Amino acid sequence: MTKPPQLAITTTPDTTTLFLSGRLDARGLAGVWTQACLAIGQVGSAVLVINLEGVDYLDMAGAAFISHLKTLGKKPSPVPPVPPQVVGLKSEYAPMLSLAEKTDMNSDFKNPGPPPSFVEQTGKNIGNIFSDAKVFIGFIGEITWAMITSLKNPGHIRWADTLVIAERAGVDALPIVALISFIVGLVMAFQAAMPMKMFGAEIYVANLIGIATVRELGPLMTAIVLAGRSASAFAAEIGTMKINEELDALTVMGMDPVKFLILPRVIASTLITPLLTIFANLVGIAGGAVVIVSLGYPIVAYYNQVVNFVTWQDFTGGIIKCFVFGILIAATGCIRGYQTARGPAAVGEATTRAVVSSIVLIAVFDGIFSIIYYYMGV
């Protein structure tokens, strides 16, 4: 039966030697951890030697303990400093100690140092933004290439999963899209009817509702709803898979995670976003109709105003935006999920980043489309 860990210390003017023996595991280390750390901090020798000849058993906790002792044993003198030495380590325990040092298990004990200045922090934040943009563009290129290669061989696309994802992201989103679109159309019609009533031109509210909904509000509101529902769901699903090492398992089995997981979501989102937008346009216009009818105008007059003012060019311009919004929503959610780090809060952070990034990209590309349409005269 192995004995509990024992610690003996010998000190010379130049060297401090720690003799560790027994079983270095998580249960037994509590008795010697504090004693060893205090001993290293109190001696002034330049060189630390950790003798492990008497160690009978070593687990990951013991490897972390030794790695921490090596960190504490680093002295600023002599110049150049002599790193702490580990002697007597059995060969079967060497990989464990190497892993403990590689994963930097002593990072929690490091002095964080003074806080960075405003200029330094600003430069760091800008660098992080550019670094994140670089990684994001790389992922976009990988997804695009996977889509191009898969479209050459449509049989390789997981169409069954694509339809299931389209149902969850599209059909299940109909109630919330209908609610938001109806309320936006209703409120906008009420707000526009008040000033137009002063000139007896309430009927022209129909023109405003029709053009604003078809060209702008329908695509934009639908995309924002999908960013909150679908982008967050994609990020949470893929992020959980990464933490559970399911993505690594797919790679080991010879499956490309981009084609296996991301591509079906991008295709589904790209297809259902225009359909949801058409539905949102109809519901938003219906919300405006409620206001016009309440002002005493017949529903036929409202219908004629919308049909005669809104053209197919306006409708097409809004639908084209939807395809781009759908790609952005799915790609952003999947990429943020793929970037999920380790830790209990990692999935939540990835989900938040997915929603925020999706909405920002939607707003940016919506502005780009507005500028393009303006110069095209659309």
Please outline what is shown here.
By secondary structure, the protein is of the alpha/beta class. It has helices at 30-42, 60-72, 94-102, 118-152, 159-169, 174-197, 205-243, 246-252, 257-294, 299-309, 312-338, 346-376, and strands at residues 6-11, 15-24, 47-58, 85-87.
Task: Give me some keywords for this one.
four-stranded mixed beta sheet; about 375 residues; 4 strands; Transcription Regulator spoIIAA; about 70% helix; 2 domains; elongated; alpha/beta; 12 helices
Task: Explain how this protein is built.
The chain has 378 residues and is an alpha/beta fold. The protein folds into two domains: 6-109, Transcription Regulator spoIIAA (2-Layer Sandwich); 138-376, no CATH class. The protein is built from twelve helices and four strands; from the N terminus they run ββαβαβαααααααααα. The chain has helices at 30-42, 60-72, 94-102, 118-152, 159-169, 174-197, 205-243, 246-252, 257-294, 299-309, 312-338, 346-376; strands at 6-11, 15-24, 47-58, 85-87. Strands 1-2-3-4 form a four-stranded mixed sheet, with helices on one face. Helix 2 (60-72) packs across helix 3 and helix 11 packs antiparallel against helix 12. It is elongated, with a radius of gyration of 32 Å. The mean pLDDT is 83.
